[in-house]
């Protein structure tokens, strides 16, 4: 099997699993409301910059891609 179809199937499986996990425990994981996220609300302006959430998501995705590359060899 070529590497591109294998990669697409792995990406699809990962997205499916992430979707299931998010659906099951999405309410209990406070992504978007972590300490370190910047939220400023004024009268007519809302500014939100999720620094901590971005770091958590980046680490999780890096770990997932590392594991996929490890098992694809």
Automatic annotation (TrEMBL):
<feature type="transmembrane region" description="Helical">
    <location>
        <begin position="45"/>
        <end position="68"/>
    </location>
</feature>
<protein>
    <recommendedName>
        <fullName>DUF2905 domain-containing protein</fullName>
    </recommendedName>
</protein>
<keyword id="KW-0812">Transmembrane</keyword>
<dbReference type="Pfam" id="PF11146">
    <property type="entry name" value="DUF2905"/>
</dbReference>
<keyword id="KW-1133">Transmembrane helix</keyword>
<keyword id="KW-0472">Membrane</keyword>
<dbReference type="InterPro" id="IPR021320">
    <property type="entry name" value="DUF2905"/>
</dbReference>
<feature type="transmembrane region" description="Helical">
    <location>
        <begin position="7"/>
        <end position="25"/>
    </location>
</feature>
